[in-house]
Structures are given as C-alpha cells and as structure tokens.
Amino acid sequence: MKLAKQLLATAATLAVAAPALADVNVYSYRQPELIAPLTDAFTEATGIAVNVAYLDSGITERLVAEGDRSPADVILTVDISRLAEAVDAGVTQPIRTETLEKNVPAEFHDPDGHWWGLTTRARVVYASKERVADGEITTYEDLADPKWKGRICTRSGTHVYMLGLTSAYIKHHGEEAAKEWLTGLKDNLARKPQGNDRAQVKAIWAGECDISLGNTYYMGKMLQDEEQAEWANAVRLEFPVFEGGGTHVNISGVSLTKASKNVDEATQFIEFLTSPNAQEIYAEANYEYPIAPGTKAIDLVAGWGTFEADGLNLMEIAAERGTALRLTEEVDYDQ
Ligand code: FE
Q1: What pTM does this model have?
Q2: Which residues contact 335 (CB under 8 A, 6 or more apart)?
C-alpha cells in the first residue's frame, strides 16, 4: 500500500484551503476499475467529491447537446482523435498551470491546454513466436511488403486505433504513399478485417496469421485472462518504427469542459491526475506507460521491450483522421 500512501501525500499537497468545495463531475470512457482508486484518493486528501458518469460513446455529442447546462467539468478518454473531436466541437476550455506543464511533456499536451495526456500506449506488431524471426519486422512500411502476403490480421481499418496509425503514416509520407501502403497491407491480409485487437492475437495462436497490429496493453490484459493467456504466450511484441521516425503512440488524456462550473476544483483534480504517482497507478491499472519525467512502467510492461516514441505532434496526427478514413474507404480496406 506504499503507492496509495504516496498518492495521498501527493493529493494533500494539492489541497488548497478553499471554502465550500464543489464536487467535480466527470464524463469517462474509461472503466471504473481504472478511475475509482484515483478519485477515492483525491477525495480523501482534498475533501472534494468526484462523481463519474461512465459512458461507452457519445461524450462529445452529449456535451454539445447539453451546452452551458452540462454538469460535466472533466472528460477522461483515450485516443487523440477523441480528444481532438471534443476540442473541435468547442466543448473544452484551455487550462495551463505550472504543475501541469511540469508533469506532462510538451509532446503529450495540447499547446493551448485543451487536453493533457496521462499515459501512453504504443501500437505495435504482435508476432508469432514460432513463425516470425526476431527482428524480421522493424518498420510499419514493411507491413505492405508482399513477403507478408496472407500472413497479417487486423481489426477494421476504420477503428480509431487503425485510423491513428494511418494518420501518422500520412503525416510521415504523404497521402499517395499512405494509400499505396494501405493497399499493400490489405493485400497481405489473411482474412477480412474483423474483431478487436485481441481477436487478431487469437488468430495468430490458431495459426490463421503470423503477425497482427495491436496496442501494447492488450498483452497485459490477455495475460491476466485464463483463456487469453494462451494466445498471449504464442506471440511476442515487436516495436516497429516509421522510416525517419519512431514507434506510433497514442494517449489517454483529460480535458476541462467549456461548461465547467467548478473550474478550481476540476483543475485540482486534473493536476492530481497528472501527478507522477497518480500516473503510475493509472498506467499500471491498464498496462500503459506513465509520461511524467522520472516515472516508470511496471516491470511486466517494461519487459516487452524499449522503444523511441514517434516525434510527430499528436494534434497533427489527429488532423489527418478525415483523410485517413477516406483512404481506408477508397482502398476498400474492410472489403
Ligand atoms: Fe483499447
């Protein structure tokens, strides 16, 4: 329980003497088991209650519909495309504080302060231990090489995780090259895109394909599941890079809503979430990477390999998502 104590200590330093503390209301795409330990610690240390509405979809639409009457102060979500969507819809407002700047490296927050990253995940290759040699795949570009014909499985090309990667490809190499790459990748597929990231690993385990694309944390999630651990043990992670770049990463993040009536309390909560201890706990709960200077992923996650995160600005990647979707449809990726 050492970490929990550290969390409390961190929260305590954020607790500013303020009369009549309002609650902080959160709309979250992230699951209760990830959020509850953090909100509990925050409340215990500051006396500020946190109410969380857990939603599967439609946070931006809901905030737009609610307008100024929205009770939400804070949005918690994953994927830069969802954060960008909220910003584009005008339902967030900027915050910038010294604490936030100190806790979140520049590449992981909006320059204007509309969103702040909390953790990262990489989108990498899951490779069959039996049928793919160490170091056989080193770049994303290589996924379009005909040597992989009939050997790759992925989920739908229109899922935000795939669109993020395609957007990064566009940003690195331009639209035409990205279309060629998508076509090559599609031609290499062992089957029509289907299922989630874990279903692709199951397909590798079952011998249907040799490599797939997936987010890093699914390795941890599969290992903690009795049935899926077998799938996980059939593969290892390879961390490809873009030619002239690094490994594609995405973030989980937090925004202050435009409608927030409790900006002071919400800001304290957001500062608390970005604190190194809170990031480590948040990251550990979902096998992700904390991003504050000096923080570390847990041993299991660190053991999957080291990588250099791609240097592209996440907002620039998000700006390409419309083009990425159009190209994915043009090449009929999902068939
Ligand atoms: Fe996921």
Answers
A1: 0.89
A2: 186, 192, 193
CATH architecture of 121-248+307-330: 3-Layer(aba) Sandwich (3.40)
Q: How far is the CA of 214 from the centre of ligand 1 (A)?
A: 9
- Among candidates 279, 314, 262, which has minimal Cα distance to 71? 262
CA of 114 to the centre of ligand 1 (A): 22
Domain 2-120+250-302, CATH number (from 3.90.1150.10, 3.40.190.10, 3.30.450.20, 3.40.50.1970)? 3.40.190.10
Q: Per-residue pLDDT for 120 more than 50?
A: yes
Give 47 Cα–ligand 1 centroid separation in angstroms. Answer: 32
CA atoms within 13 A on the CB side of 129: 8
Q: Is 252 in contact with 118 (CB distance < 8 Å)?
A: yes
Fold match flag (2-120+250-302 vs 121-248+307-330): yes
Task: Please name the residues in contact with 60: beta carbons below 8 A apart, sequence gap of 6 or more.
Answer: 82, 85, 86, 89, 91
CB burial class (10 A; 0-12, 13-18, 19+) of residue 98? Answer: exposed
278-47-21 Cα angle (round to 5): 115
Domain spans of the chain, in order of start: 2-120+250-302, 121-248+307-330
Give the pLDDT band (50/70/90) at residue 227: very high
Asked whether the beta carbons of 222 and 93 are under 8 A apart, the reply is: no
Ligand 1 center to 277 CA (angstroms): 23
Radius of gyration of the chain (CA): 20
H-run or E-run covering 119? strand 116-128
What pLDDT shows up at residue 18? Answer: 47
Give 181-211 pLDDT, tens digit per residue. Answer: 999 999 999 999 999 999 999 999 999 999 9
pLDDT tens string 121-165:
999 999 999 999 998 999 999 999 999 999 999 999 999 999 999
